[in-house]
């Protein structure tokens, strides 16, 4: 054998060995926990044969606690580039088989390298997390490594999409990297995120809680809202990440890819003309409205199980990717509260950062009142959504289906918040409040002064009718130019798509500033 052949043999063997990470025993242990390895995850995520690995031979440089005697090529993370549906992405996947995927300084350098490449070359970064956190043996070096990653998360925010999959433990300060990214997906029963684990919680606060209750997928996708998605399995999680990417552009200078459809742009849906119940307090299915107006009825929901009173997600309309924000009359009557405002605001800001037009479907009775909301700062949180819609310069098309009352009317992308095209259905009620509340405020004393209950009811009814006729319709707003048109519900798909087409050349600036100071 020539020297060259020997050298090539050495390369092949080193590659094979690096691919085993922490070794077969640890790979088996990973599988026994129902988890895939970092490489298996990447091979599911990326187009076949597209993965090009970087830094496969990087090793840690730690000499504490006997670490100099234990090295694994590549250390505890697999990094590189590949394609998903033919589009370039940069990836890193923490390898739990190597020191529990704990972060060394060299691992952070590998991760930072792909993040820098992603920003330079304008492509999304996907991080698959499965790690015991900072590598304890490395001390401050490991913490510095996290700092380097966080800094890149911050600088890449709004430049390229950043997506985090949580496929195992994610604890301590390590949770802040995913939290700085645009979307978090967690896998049920095998992943968790928390600042500190159950034993520390018990010693500090006395609370007894297990990992799942403290920071499992259920907790973060339903209660805290930290995770936008949860998946029943790793495979399902990876499919969700791929689907998400299909709605997104590569970076903030591009628009999302178009998706051709056979769904006619001018398809009418007569059932929409009958969808609003006669009784204003009766709910109806907003998901049905969304399905009826978007291409092929396909809606990709974000934050499905959190703050269900507002619905957000992606769809295509006339082949273009759009972000949909809709109040949900089936949950708390579609009222806006702290969580709904936070959820929708973050989504609106993402769409605005990445040139995804917004389509807003409004049926909102107002903000949820009460001490719980006030003490939780509904004012500041509601202002986040107000701010998000107001600052957004992407095309914004809004349709008011039914209620649009008070502050919530303003917040939901009204004309004065630089709404581009605002339509209303004939069933729309655009007013300071509904008839019940208004009559109570305006005529409460007069009604109470009447002793005969039948007479009271008669006056109330007459006043409500008077109020409804004056305000509870779209024509007050239409007369004053606060909406562009009152449209027939069955034409909604066509009207929105045509409006979006006219807005393709939209250009709007915000005043020069260092950065804004939105009410965090
Ligand atoms: C070094 C670690 C490690 C760590 C795990 N390992 N975490 N090595 N530093 N942080 C090693 C283990 O020693 C073990 O090595 C192997 O990884 C697998 O771990 P196990 O404990 O056997 O696995 P499991 O039972 O599944 O438990 C996983 C775990 C647990 C829940 C993640 O390992 C754990 O609690 N680790 C510590 C978590 C933690 O507190 N991290 C620090 C958070 S603070 P061997 O050789 O035995 O296989 C933090 C600060 C970041 O991250 C600050 C940023 C600003």
Descriptive report:
The protein is α/β, with parallel strands linked by helices. Helices cover 40% and strands 17% of the residues. It has helices spanning 3-19, 24-32, 38-45, 105-121, 140-156, 176-180, 198-205, 211-215, 217-224, 234-246, 286-293, 338-353, 371-375, 378-391, 406-411, 435-449, 453-471, 475-479, 492-502, and strands at 52-54, 77-84, 87-94, 125-129, 162-166, 169-171, 183-187, 192-194, 229-231, 299-302, 310-317, 320-327, 358-364, 396-405, 421-424, 429-431, 485-486. Strands 10, 11, 12, 13, 14, 15, 16 and 17 form an eight-stranded mixed sheet that branches. Strands 1-2-3-4-5-7-9 form a seven-stranded mixed sheet, with helices on both faces. Strand 11 and strand 12 form a beta hairpin. Helix 4 (105-121) packs parallel to helix 5, helix 12 (338-353) packs parallel to helix 14 (378-391) and helix 16 packs antiparallel against helix 17. The mean pLDDT is 96. Hexanoyl-coenzyme A is lined by residues 99-100, 102, 132-136, 143, 146, 169, 171-174.
Question: Which residue ranges are poorly predicted, with pLDDT under 50 across at least 5 consecutive positions?
Answer: none
Q: How does the overall form come out from the CA principal axes?
A: elongated
Radius of gyration: 27 Å
Q: What is the rounded distance between the termini? A: 66 Å
Residue fraction in strands: 15-25%
Number of strands: 17
Helix content: 25-40%
User: Average pLDDT value?
Assistant: 96
Counting helices, strands and paired strands, the structural category is alpha/beta
Q: Name the bound molecules.
A: hexanoyl-coenzyme A
Q: What about the largest sheet?
A: 8 strands, mixed
Number of helices: 19
């Amino acid at each position: 054998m020539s020297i060259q052949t020997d050298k090539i043999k050495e390369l092949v063997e080193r590659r094979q060995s690096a691919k085993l990470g922490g070794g077969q025993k640890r790979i088996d242990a990973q599988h026994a926990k129902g988890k895939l390895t970092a490489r298996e995850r990447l091979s599911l995520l990326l187009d076949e044969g597209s993965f090009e690995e970087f830094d496969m031979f990087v090793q840690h440089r730690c000499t504490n606690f006997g670490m100099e005697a234990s090295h694994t090529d590549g250390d505890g993370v697999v990094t590189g580039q590949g394609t998903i549906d033919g589009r370039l992405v940069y990836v890193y996947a923490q390898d739990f088989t190597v020191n529990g995927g704990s972060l060394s300084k060299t691992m952070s350098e590998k991760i930072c390298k792909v993040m820098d490449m992603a920003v330079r070359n304008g492509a999304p970064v996907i991080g698959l997390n499965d790690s015991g956190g900072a590598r304890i043996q490395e001390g401050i070096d490991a913490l510095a490594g996290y700092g380097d990653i966080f800094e890149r998360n911050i600088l890449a925010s709004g430049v390229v999409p950043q997506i985090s999959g949580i496929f195992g433990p994610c604890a301590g300060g390590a949770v802040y990297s995913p939290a700085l990214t645009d979307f978090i997906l967690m896998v049920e029963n095998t992943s968790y995120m928390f600042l500190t684990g159950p034993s520390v919680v018990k010693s500090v606060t006395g609370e007894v809680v297990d990992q799942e209750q403290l920071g499992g997928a259920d907790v973060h996708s339903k209660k805290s809202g930290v995770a936008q998605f949860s998946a029943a399995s790793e495979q399902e999680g990876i499919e969700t990440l791929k689907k998400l990417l299909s709605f997104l552009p590569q970076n903030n200078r591009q628009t999302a890819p178009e998706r051709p459809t056979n769904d006619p742009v001018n398809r009418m849906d007569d059932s929409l003309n009958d969808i609003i119940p006669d009784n204003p307090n009766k709910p109806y299915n907003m998901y049905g409205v969304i399905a009826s107006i978007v291409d092929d009825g396909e809606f990709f929901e974000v934050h499905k199980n959190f703050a269900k009173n507002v619905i957000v997600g992606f769809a295509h309309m006339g082949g273009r990717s759009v972000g949909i924000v809709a109040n949900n009359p089936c949950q708390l009557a579609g009222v806006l509260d702290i969580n709904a405002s936070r959820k929708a605001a973050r989504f609106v800001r993402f769409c605005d950062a990445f040139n995804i037009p917004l389509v807003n479907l409004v049926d909102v009775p107002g903000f949820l009142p009460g001490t719980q909301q006030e003490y939780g700062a509904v004012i500041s949180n509601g202002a986040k959504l107000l701010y998000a819609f107001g600052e957004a310069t992407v095309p914004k098309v809004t349709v008011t289906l039914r209620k649009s009352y008070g502050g919530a009317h303003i917040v939901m992308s009204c004309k004065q918040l630089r709404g581009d095209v605002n339509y209303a259905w004939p069933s729309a009620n655009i007013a300071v409040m509904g008839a019940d509340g208004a009559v109570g405020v305006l005529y409460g004393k007069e009604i109470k002064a009447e002793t005969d209950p039948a007479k009271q009811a008669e006056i109330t009814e007459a006043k409500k009718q008077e109020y409804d006729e004056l305000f509870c319709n779209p024509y007050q707003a239409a007369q004053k130019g606060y909406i562009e048109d009152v449209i027939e519900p069955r034409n909604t798909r066509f009207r929105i798509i045509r409006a979006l087409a006219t807005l393709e050349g939209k250009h709007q600036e915000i005043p020069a500033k260092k950065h804004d100071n939105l009410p965090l």
